[in-house]
Amino acid sequence: MKNEFEMSDMGLIHYFLGIEVNQNEGEIVISQQKYAHDLLKKFRMENASPCNTPMDANLKLCKDDIGEAVDPSLYRSLVGSLMYLTATRPDILFAVSMLSRFMTNPKRSHWEAGKRVLRYILGTINFGIYYKKVSESVMFGFCDSDWGGNVDDHKSTSGYVFSMGSGVFSWTSKKQSVVALSTTEAEYISLAAAGCQALWLRWMLKELKCIQKCETVLFCDNGSAIALSKNPVFHGRSKHIRIKYHFIRDLVKDGEVIVKYCKTQDQVADIFTKVLKFDLFVKFRGKLGVAQV
């Protein structure tokens, strides 16, 4: 590239756009410790009491909360700052996604939930994502959904995560756009979303000369949704499902993805769809490669 462009070799990258990169023999660790410190200082939470999960498992947030209103600008600033932190902290993604649903008219309960995420960050401020050198570069993904978990409109939340080699590199948590009539439908919608992302990632990896020679495996913990992705079974219970979600069938038929079953206790994407109790949360956080730097 030096032959084509005027540039200077500054050596290995250590810091870029708030992301710290530590490269050791056989591994790379990315984190945002300085950014997290600045975030805690900005919201005066550097001396708060740490907590061990981002959200209370018994908390139910809703738009129609009758509590005290808080400053919308301050709340949006908090949520926006936390969103940037999810670049290296996928373990807080579900909590941040949940908080982002109340940007218009935030109440005291929403603000306190946001402060709890900051308290969790305080207790895990030196955490980041580990990537270790491996011989294989095969991409695979996990996708999951809750069912009707949103208190306001009873829509479900989809979550998926993709990994290649030893670390995760693409993840999301997003409320579905329609009300699912069953767990099968909710999981099927999540499969379709994960399938679209898998196809795009395969194209991107091809451009990077990292061609995926076999189907991308998507792990799902709902047998009925898996069956529906392969052929139009359960027609009486699935004929109402919107056409766009059947795109997953084409991906399976064309050999782009293959959907396989995994047990619920091994479903890593569960961390993106609901609030988990401490033991399960820590288990899945570890599977995401998030650990102390």
UniProtKB/TrEMBL annotation:
Pfam families: RVT_2
InterPro entries assigned: DNA/RNA_pol_sf, RVT_2
Signal peptide location: none
Domain Reverse transcriptase Ty1/copia-type: 1-56
Listed name of the protein: Integrase
Organism whose genome encodes this protein: Cucumis melo var. makuwa (Oriental melon)
